[in-house]
Amino acid sequence: MTRVRANPASQAAFLARNVADALPAGGLERRLEQAVEAGRPLRVKLGLDPTAPDIHLGHTVVLQKLREFQDLGHRVVLIVGDYTARVGDPSGRSETRPALSAEEIAANARTYERQAFRVISDDPDLYELRFNGEWLDMSMEALFGLARTTTVAQLLDREDFATRYRAGAPISVLELLYPLMQGYDSVAVRADVELGGTDQTFNLLLGRDIQRHYGQPEQAVLTLPILPGIDGVEKMSKTKGNQIGVTEEPSSMFAKTMRLPDEAMATWFELLAVEPSAPEIPPRDAKRALARAIVSRFHGDVAAAAAEQAFDRIFVEHGVPDEVADADVSASDGIVHVPAALGEAFGVSRSEARRLLAQGGVRVAGQPLAADELDVPRARLDGEVVQLGRRRFRRLRVR
RNA sequence: GGGGGGAUGCCCGAGUGGUUAAAGGGGACGGGCUGUAAACCCGUUGGCUCUGCCUACGCAGGUUCGAAUCCUGCUCCCCCCA
Question: I need a labelling partner for A381 at 20 to 30 A (CA). Which of A109, A177, A238, A249 fits?
Answer without folding.
Answer: A249
